[in-house]
Write a structure and sequence with these properties.
The protein is of the alpha+beta class and 224 residues long. The chain folds into 2 domains: 39 residues; 138 residues, Immunoglobulin-like (Sandwich), CATH 2.60.40. The protein is built from 3 helices and 13 strands, in the order ααββββββββββαβββ. The longest helix is centred in the N-terminal third of the chain and has 31 residues.
Length: 224
């Protein structure tokens, strides 16, 4: 009888120990979260590779701004004159096909401020210009008329007279060598009938005397 009690007591102690051990393992797993099958079987889990962050991308909405060249203004230089008009540095007629040799003052850089028209009639060269009563007079004169002529393949420019305040015409006989008085447009030189010449008016430029450094454009005419 005692032997049976000892066996039962031993079995009871074994069952109690098993129950206590199972409870401890369950509590441990609860604290660790979900337990995988590999962990229960004692197989180590592979270490997960660290995630590589995606490469940073630029702003796909950005725009490349291209500065377009600014619109250019007029290629001719302009400025305001004291009387409120405008001036422009104009070129010369295409008929003047060689560099100009200036027999008097080189006025090619003087601004064109005067409108002009030219005609030959009644024994006179008429060149009404808009500054005839604007340019100041010095000793009674305020301008010089010019002739542009081609001689031996070369274009020359020379004054041939003086203009009084308001004067806009000269006799045709003044457009010749004894009025220009500078070689090679001197002496017996004179434009021939049918010859193309240019006429222009400027401020005083025949000698060192000056009033304004302005001029008209050159007008080409056919000499009668």
């Amino acid at each position: 009888m005692r032997r049976i009690e000892m066996i039962l007591k031993t079995a009871w102690i074994a069952l109690l120990a098993t129950a206590l051990l199972t409870g401890c393992e369950t509590g441990t797993m609860d604290n660790q979260g979900t337990v995988t099958l590999n962990e229960l079987q004692g197989i180590p889990e592979p270490t997960p590779e660290p995630e590589t962050p995606p490469a940073e991308q630029g702003n796909t909405n950005s725009q490349t701004q291209t500065n377009s060249p600014s619109d250019g203004g007029s290629t001719g230089s302009t400025s305001t004159t004291p009387d409120g008009g405008t001036t422009s540095n104009e070129g010369f007629p295409s008929e003047i096909d060689t560099p100009i040799k200036w027999l008097h003052t080189d006025v090619s850089r003087w601004p064109v401020t005067a409108d002009i028209s030219v005609s030959v009639s009644g024994g006179k060269v008429n060149f009404p210009y808009s500054k005839s009563r604007s340019w100041p007079a010095v000793d009674g004169v305020n301008a010089n008329p010019w002739v542009f002529a081609k001689k031996d393949g070369q274009w020359y420019a020379a004054t041939f007279e003086w203009l009084r305040f308001g004067q806009t015409a000269k006799p045709t006989y003044t457009v010749r060598g004894d009025h220009v008085k500078v070689a090679p447009l001197n002496g017996s030189w004179a434009p021939k009938s049918g010859e193309r010449i240019g006429i222009m008016v400027s401020g005083l430029a025949r000698h060192k005397q000056r009033n304004v450094q302005e001029r008209s454009r050159v007008v080409m005419i056919t000499w009668p």
